[in-house]
Amino acid sequence: NVLISAFGVKFEQTEVDVPAAAPFKIDFDNKDPGTPHNIVIHEGVDKSGTVVFTGETFNGVAVKVYDVPALAAGPYLFECTIHPGMEGSMTAE
After folding, report:
1. Average pLDDT per run of 10 along the chain, which is 93 residues long?
2. Own/partner pairs for 1-5, CB < 8 Å, 24+ apart?
3. In terms of DSSP bridges, do strands 74-79 and 40-43 run parallel, antiparallel, or are they unpaired?
4. Alpha-carbon gap, residue 80 to 86, rounded angstroms
5. pTM to 2 decimals?
6. pLDDT given for residue 38 in this prediction
7. pLDDT for 11
8. How far apart are CA 42 and CA 63, in angstroms?
């Protein structure tokens, strides 16, 4: 599983590697008490790319496991749609 955590209204991991061409899980640890976060994955390097995954929004402190479908090899951007600027890069390889 891929770990991504949120604390202080930012992702603690700003670059993550994930497997290409195989489904995977993200363990999303929301460490911000009472603050809603989610993870949305876009193709390419910015938010203009097609959304390929949208994770459920939930309040911290909590952990959710997201089941992400297989992604083609290449670059992706992940973001929290609630908090602009809360984002990171993901590489499927």
Report:
1. 98 98 98 98 97 98 98 98 97 98
2. 1/25, 1/26, 1/27, 1/65, 2/26, 2/27, 3/27, 3/29, 4/28, 4/29, 4/39, 4/78, 4/88, 5/29, 5/30, 5/31
3. antiparallel
4. 6
5. 0.97
6. 98
7. 98
8. 22
